[in-house]
Write a structure and sequence with these properties.
The structure is a homodimer.
Chain A: H1 6-19, H2 28-35, H3 39-51, E1 55-58, E2 64-67, H4 76-84, H5 100-105, H6 115-133, H7 136-146, H8 150-160
Antiparallel strand pairs in A: 1-2
Helix pairs in contact in A: 1-2, 1-3, 1-4, 2-3
Chain A binds a DNA duplex through residues 2, 4-6, 25, 27-29, 38-41, 43-44, 46-47, 50, 57-65.
Chain lengths: 167, 167
Amino acid sequence: MRLAEGVEWGVHSCLALSWLEDEAPIPAARLADIHDLPVAYLAKQMQALARAGIVSSTSGARGGFRLARPIREISLLDVVDAIEGGRAVTFECTEIRRRGPVGQVSDSSFSAPCGIAAAMRRAEDNWRAALKHTSLAEIGREVLAAAPGTADATRVWFAQSRNPVRN
Amino acid sequence: MRLAEGVEWGVHSCLALSWLEDEAPIPAARLADIHDLPVAYLAKQMQALARAGIVSSTSGARGGFRLARPIREISLLDVVDAIEGGRAVTFECTEIRRRGPVGQVSDSSFSAPCGIAAAMRRAEDNWRAALKHTSLAEIGREVLAAAPGTADATRVWFAQSRNPVRN
DNA sequence: GAATAGGTACTCGGATAATGCCTGTCCGAGTCTAGTGGG
DNA sequence: CCCACTAGACTCGGACAGGCATTATCCGAGTACCTATTC
């Protein structure tokens, strides 16, 4: 069970967008350059973030992505759900309790959810609660605490490459 | 992100083993019959449980599986880790923060873990703690509360099919 | 000189292949049982 | 009658394919900008 790595990309990209607080949107290609990621695939993840309303997209020349709301109002859960398509459900009960001879014999009403599913649901709720409680702003602070120069370096690199030399 | 469905099978099988508290081990084929599961694949899951020390296996005629310890001493986390092979890690940091131009520029020591990984780790710890706190005995009680006849039905069916008619 | 129309380049968006993991299956090694023959 | 041996069958264990989700990619639709032409 592994979370899609697009989550990591999405969070880092949102952090970069917050550091590059600029009036102009930033295209996916530029965001991909920052972390040396596959352009097309990151673009796909950004589309997911746009659909979820985390970032807003602008088409055409000088277009790109920008944060749709302050980064402190974006939770880690928002990004996870956006990338995973809302199906970030760790456990899906297949109701095998109903199958087989025993399931046939005990005709009990299965209206109550399976005990396994209930327990898994409780654990998953804890997981989601922790993710919801964490904002990208907090994560950004942690990232900068570990590597303080990152934000400035991002800004410097972006300014230098703003008008790239054409061949 | 979906948990392997073998987890559900493993838990139900362990519950069945606890209900069929018998001195004799129960072969995987019999366990598979209970819930109408693919025999070979369930056997594979049972092997994983055996490797993890949750059940003990006996080879040869009259062989099979039995619980290695009381069911109240088996946590849901034990089963999840056993089936998932210990790699039930929801998030794996690929350290993209080091890649790309910015990562190169900011030569900061990356000894501290990435902020994203840390936040994910906290959420995952909550998840694992909830799973660890839940014993299969509790789940069994919930299952029986929902469908009270299950345990008896399992015992009856097992006794009836103990000496199956050969063709 | 200013405005407008057209062309061009750039960007997102969704539709389309390739890869890896989970699912599913098979056969061989080992072990216990049961039957048989001998003491 | 009891014991040892042998043959048989049963069970687990690990090695071997198939299906599907994730990963990765591409091309088309739309938009803004820039340029050239006209008034």
